[in-house]
Amino acid sequence: MPSINSICSAITSTFRSQTSAQPEPSPFSAALSSVSNRALVDLATPPRFVKPHETQDNKFKLNISEFFRNEQLKTPLKSSLDKNVNYLWLLSYNAINKLPELVIGYEHADCSGNRYGHPTLAIGGLQDDGTTSYQKGFIAGELFYKNNEWHIDNNSGRFGSGNVTAMRNNMMGKADLMDMARATFLEQTDLAVSTTKIYSRHNLKRALQGVFPVLARQHRNSLS
Predict the structure, then answer these.
(1) Structural domain boundaries of the chain?
(2) CB 17: neighbour CB atoms within 10 A?
(3) What pLDDT, in 10s, does the model give residues 132-187?
């Protein structure tokens, strides 16, 4: 598996060699044109069922939005990502510029076998009381290469369902959130991803863990 540090280095060097922004119209703006700022706030939620070890940052992640905001250029992921790796992605909410942000990484296990999933892509930092703060997110899933193209799905037990109440109130569904994610990939990267809406295989397990917390402790090494 390639080091995310080498990916970041490749991305950074590519950024420095580019001199002009992409001129084509933005599908990102079109995807957001029918969504109010209030709706964006309501649609975003913190991660569910965070495991104790996931209060630590995922060191194998890349906040694409930081590159995009700072450089105003598309992140050249196509030449940097490994087609044999299933990556994690998260569409989070930036409360400052009030826009969706894209973060990717990959789930890894530490020496104790603890796996670091989607919540670690949303870590905002430590608060004054010593607890971990999280960015809110709209939806998350996996990024993978199949049939000669990159795909994203919403296979996440912590962000994959979205905020059901807010989606109903704003007459939106998972497909709309996935369209927003696809538009963000087009806006901030060079990946024209295909989207697949699925019912996460983790949803039932997460629901049971919410009712019976002991199950969460017993499954702390399970996939995210």
Answers:
(1) 25-218
(2) 7
(3) 878 899 999 999 999 999 999 998 888 877 788 888 888 888 888 899 999 999 88
Interhelix angle for 174-188 vs 64-71, to 10°?
Answer: 50
Task: Compute CA distances 216 → 14, 16, 90, 211, whole Å.
Answer: 42, 44, 22, 10
What does each C-alpha distance from 193 to 4, 7, 28, 96, 183 come to in angstroms? Answer: 20, 19, 13, 27, 9
Bridge partners (DSSP) of residue 140 are 90
Residue recorded with tokens 């709209």: 138
How buried is residue 120: exposed, middle or buried, by Cβ count under 10 Å (0-12/13-18/19+)? buried
Rounded to an integer, what distance in angstroms lies between the CA atom of residue 224 and that of residue 115?
7
163 touches 176 (CB < 8 A): no
